[in-house]
Amino acid sequence: MFSCTFIPALDQRPAMLQVSGEATIQHIQQFKEALVEGLKAQPDLVIDCGQVTEADLSCLQLLCAAHRGSPAIKLLPEPSSAIRDLIEPSGFARAEECCNTADPRGCLWVRAVTAPRGEDC
Amino acid sequence: MQNQPYEAFREEAYELLALLENSLMELEDSPDNMDIVGAVFRAMHTIKGSGAMFGFDDISAFTHEIETVFDLVRNGALPVTGELINLSLIARDQIKAMLDASCGGQPYDEEKTIALKTAFRRMLPAAPVETPVATAANEPPPAPESASRRTYRIRFRPHENIFLSGTNPLCLLNELRDLGKCRVVAQLDDIPPLDVLDPEKVYTFWDVILTTAKDLDDIKDVFIFVEDDCELRIDLIDDAELLASDSSYKKLGDILIERGDLTSEALQEVLKQQKRIGQMLVEAKAVSPSKVAAALAEQEHVKTVRQQKPQPAPEPASSIRVPADRLDRLVDLVGEMVTIQSRLSQTAIGREDAELISIAEEVERLTAELRDNTLNIRMLPIGTTFSKFKRLVRDLSQDLGKEIELTTAGAETELDKTVIEKLNDPLVHIIRNSIDHGIETPEQREQSGKKRQGTIHLAAIHSGASVIIEIIDDGAGLNEDAIRRKAIEKGLIGELDQLSRQDLFQLIFAAGFSTARKVTGISGRGVGMDVVKRAIESLRGAIEIDSEPGQGTTIRVRIPLTLAIINSLLVAIGSDFFVIPLSIVEECIELTRAVVAASHGRNLVRVRDQLVPYVNLRQEFAIDGEPPAIEQVVITAVNGQRVGFVVDRVIGEHQTVIKTLGRMYRDVQGLSGATILGSGKVALILDIPQLIQRAEKNELHY
């Protein structure tokens, strides 16, 4: 099971992409298409990975790629443990600068694990 | 105070000797395990060293001989043989005897020491010094596996399409992590922008810094299935052996400071202006930030690994040594506290003062916690006792020419220290019996189609407020006919008595009962099982036997967790109070005059269509006065047998702090101790098994 729901911006609330289920290689094309569509509509898209039950390298790679082109994206609220537990072992976390020098906030993954739950970083 | 370090050495030595015994027996099972050889050597070495330090010169000198031999074993110059293990075990006992002698025990046999010394010397090769040197000169020393840890830099770049072959690169990284300390930095430079990204391809590659005791080949093995689907480069970057010849030298700034040409403040000032090399390189676009991150990770990893090297393995959880009598004193005090607390609660309720009652409740809560914590301190895992039995089984089975393996389960089960100590002798007896009578000789076993090697299984498990210890052997089982014949011969049962199997087995606990046809040095004198039963009952425990002919025997011992404070049922007869351990109480029922009259003078009461015999405690203890119209029967169950006890009133559950009766009352039957109630009155603790026995005896006389 995998699903991606785009919720358009409303008043103060920015547009949001709700991802749930297995964000793995089997569904990664679907995930990518949803992400491309979502970013077209809203460059500072909020991606909610709180309901992801399974994730793999392709998922991390995809989000990294999205961050590269759209530095303003946010992972809110905190991604589910399926993703968080992958960041350290896969070596994706960056103590130093992120490869995306356009984002002053630094690495997407460092923020994902260190930011307090639900708080914007 | 003067002999305190002395004491410390002795305690340490006893512990080491226990450890040594275990290690030696493990070594017997796996003679090639160099870790155990190392452990044996270290134990000997420590005993020798601290022995000499505290003036135990004889022990030190003796241990030295054994240590020398094990040093050679450690270096591979001597093999581990059965003879060596036997000799070492005897030597261990001798060291123990020497220790015992030093603290006022029996003097030890000096000739045995000398004989053992000679035996160990004989094990040494003729020219012990030259042998290792010669081999060392001829061939390079084999790479020791555990001693040296090396650090590798691994660059792992899987092909783009590696996902298609079903490989998950992250699994490979996890496998590397199993090899040793590992730092992983993913290189993300090649990940393209989202619009051109094919999400089913892998763009990531990794720099891994791994410190491991394993070889290069072991690392390559991790990647063996993806060899053709990736680029792999493994470089050795740090080697424990190369450390000594470290070629890097101090930095320029440090040299200038050392010579006095530059102050460290001035150096810091200049350095502050300088950017870090990583930052400069990134700005110059010479390398990408992630490459710098990977390099920094490598630097940090090697640094931490190098810093760790001189440190020994981390200490196990810290603990402190406290003399046992201090703990006993603490438990006594907590007992007083529990008593005074129940008095406080009673007074508070009597005064009907809400404030006082709330304070009393608070005190009650704290006291309960204090009691549980204090009793917990005295809890010890039963495993130490189990390991003693390993030696017992080994030695006895060798003497008797039997092959027996001892398996254990639940060694971590905790029991009160005093209980464990008192449990030792009965358990030894039961195990001896199993070895001697239970398990057959290898030949007999083969004839009856069993494995040559017999098994004795020792298991401990928690069950409510008690611990159940099972001793299970797969031997011949109990001979029901022999027990019956013997019982008739001893006059314990009549020729025509029909007994249930359980009752028949219980007969072997009768005094002077042994079915063994010949008395061996180990068991069969018939002074065994009754003593065992008595010992278990003095711990307020129970013992059960079950046996299947040809399949084996199971002995189940049930022991309460602690001896100091128990939950019990408080009852009253006239103005006297008694307590019955709650663990054996099953239920309470009413006894009316009508019921008594209907049973025609027999002390039997019907409980849910079952007849249960009862003992009238008022008669038993000859207490004056008239019983109330409706009395109470407390039904107890001991060893599967239900017996009721008639009392005037049942008051309720009570926390009982057990006090021993004075010496004068040591031989009083039917009472196991006393306790002080909240009101300050004394209540006697009933020894239910003994009361049942007494009642049975009286019954026979009629």
Strand arrangement within the widest β-sheet of chain B reads: 6-8-9-11-10
> Portion of residues in helices of chain A?
25-40%
Give average pLDDT of chain A, whole number.
Answer: 75
Task: Please give the CATH class of the largest domain in chain B.
Answer: Alpha Beta
How are strands sequenced across the largest beta sheet of chain A? 1-2-3-4
Tally of DSSP helical segments of chain B: 23
**Stretches with pLDDT under 50, minimum 5 residues of chain A:** 115-121
Oligomeric state: heterodimer
N-end to C-end Cα span of chain A: 30 Å
The H/E string of chain A reads EEHEHEHH
Please, how many domains of chain A?
A: 1
Sum up the structure in keywords.
heterodimer, A: 121 residues, alpha/beta, Transcription Regulator spoIIAA, four-stranded mixed sheet, 34% helix, disordered C terminus, B: alpha+beta, Alpha-Beta Plaits, 5 domains, five-stranded mixed sheet, 23 helices, 22% strand, extended
Structure, described:
The complex is a heterodimer of chains A (121) and B (702). By secondary structure, chain A is of the alpha/beta class. Chain A has a single domain, classed as Transcription Regulator spoIIAA, CATH 3.30.750.24. Helices cover 34% and strands 21% of the residues of chain A. Chain A has helices at residues 28-41, 57-69, 81-87, 108-114, and strands at residues 2-7, 16-23, 46-55, 74-75. In chain A, strand 1 and strand 2 form a beta hairpin. In chain A, helix 1 (28-41) packs parallel to helix 2. The longest helix of chain A has 14 residues, at 28-41. Chain A is globular and about 40 Å long. Chain A starts with a strand and ends in a 7-residue tail after the last helix. In chain A, 45% of the residues are buried. Mean pLDDT of chain A is 75; it is low at 115-121. Chain B is α+β, with helices and mostly antiparallel strands. Chain B has five domains: 4-138, Four Helix Bundle (Hemerythrin (Met), subunit A), CATH 1.20.120; 150-242 and 263-308, 2-Layer Sandwich (Alpha-Beta Plaits), CATH 3.30.70.1110; 326-378; 395-560, Histidine kinase-like ATPase, C-terminal domain (Heat Shock Protein 90); 565-701, SH3 Domains (SH3 type barrels, Roll), CATH 2.30.30.40. In chain B, strands 6-8-9-11-10 form a five-stranded mixed β-sheet. Chain B has a five-stranded mixed β-sheet with strand order 19-12-13-21-20. In chain B, a hairpin with a 2-residue loop joins strand 17 and strand 18. In chain B, helix 3 runs parallel beside helix 5 and helix 4 runs antiparallel to helix 5. Chain B is extended. The two termini of chain B are 63 Å apart. Mean pLDDT of chain B is 80; it is low at 127-147, 241-247 and 521-526. Classes of the chains: A alpha/beta (121), B alpha+beta (702). The A-B interface holds A 25, 28-29, 31-32, 35-36, 39, 56-58, 61-62, 64-66, 68-70, 86, 89-92, 94-99, 101 and B 163, 168-170, 173-174, 177, 183-186, 188-189, 191-195, 197, 199-200, 202-204, 206-208, 278, 282, 288-290, 292-293, 296.
